[in-house]
């Protein structure tokens, strides 16, 4: 199948600037209706933008040219493309390119789910080990942040650090997967869940989030 819009061999200066802005943007992914659809909320704003990646990228920001900064954010931060990957600056993707993006992200998420299952254990029936948080209300231990590998927050897609963990800037899923998330980002996620009439769930595993955490 041919590309819906002309292939862009080299990004313009304006597009390069948008890509740079996207790489450094403070945006929150508050909802993912599908594998190629995302709802973003800028930091410090109540406004939300729906981004769709596909044969023709779309964003409700109304930008005249794609990729806008929101589409570029999804490509760079969510789909983890590098700045020199030609897919990053295309206004449209081939079916094969889109499939490769979705499959790559799903493999990454699947690996995280495997890791979570490997660490899952009931903490209420045993003494905490060095990798356990010591939270008496937790049914699942926190999976420690790997100082070598690092891990991205599933809401802002910025790296979470061991220092943030030690300073208690991170919370974690105490009922299901044990994965961490920035506390501030979790509040943004919670606000969105409330606004659409849903109970708070884990942004990683979508399991119920422990009340009062």
Strand order, sheet with most strands: 1-2-3-4
Q: Mean of the pLDDT scores?
A: 88
Number of helices in the DSSP assignment: 5
Q: Could you list the spans in which at least 5 consecutive residues all have pLDDT below 50?
A: 121-133
N-C termini distance: 49 Å
For the largest beta-sheet, the strand count, sense and barrel status come to:
4 strands, antiparallel
Q: Total strand count, please?
A: 8
Q: What sequence of helices (H) and strands (E) makes up the elements?
A: HEEEEHHEEHEEH
Strand content: 5-15%
Radius of gyration, taken over Cα atoms and rounded to an integer in Å: 19 Å
Helix fraction bin: 25-40%
How many discrete domains? 2
Shape: globular
Q: Helices and strands: which structural class?
A: alpha+beta
Supply database-style keywords.
two-stranded antiparallel sheet, globular, 2 domains, 213 residues, 5 helices, 4-stranded antiparallel sheet
How are the elements arranged and paired?
Layout (H helix, E strand, L loop, with lengths): L12 H12 L2 E8 L2 E6 L6 E4 L5 E2 L9 H10 L16 H25 L31 E2 L6 E2 L1 H5 L3 E3 L7 E3 H13 L18
Antiparallel strand pairs: 1-2, 2-3, 3-4, 5-6, 7-8
